Amino acid sequence: MTATAILDLERAGFTREQVEALARWHEAGLDLSHLTTKADLAEVRREIADAKAELRAEIAGVRHEMAAGKADLLKWMFGIAAGQLGLLIAVLKLFPGGHP
Question: Closest Cα to residue 32, out of 18, 22, 17?
C-alpha cells in the first residue's frame, strides 16, 4: 500500500489501526473485491421493496378474483337450491296421495 493511499484512507476517516490492518491484508494478497458495499446493500433493499410491492399487488388481485368467484358460486348454489325446491313441489303436486 502506498503512502498516498494510507494518507487518503486517514483523510477519509479511517483510524491508524484500520489503515494498518488494510495494509496487512493488501500485503497478504487478500482479494476484497467480493465484499458487499453499502451501495450494494441499498440496491438489494430496493429490489426487495419492489418485489414486496409486486407481491402485494398480486395478492390483492387474487383476493379480488376469489371474492368474485365466491359471489358467483353462491349465485349458482341458490339457483340450484331454488330449482330443486321447485322440482320437489312439482313432484308432490303430481303425486298428491303419496305412496299407495
Answer: 22
pTM of model > 0.85: no
3-state secondary structure the chain: CCHHHHHHHHHCCCCHHHHHHHHHHHHHCCCCCCCCCHHHHHHHHHHHHHHHHHHHHHHHHHHHHHHHHHHHHHHHHHHHHHHHHHHHHHHHHHCCCCCC
How many residues can be counted in the chain? 100
Helix-helix angle 16-28:3-11, to 10 degrees: 140
37 secondary structure, DSSP code:
P
pLDDT digits (tens, 9 = 90+) for 38-58: 899 999 999 999 999 999 999
Pairwise CA distance, residues 68 & 64, whole Å: 6
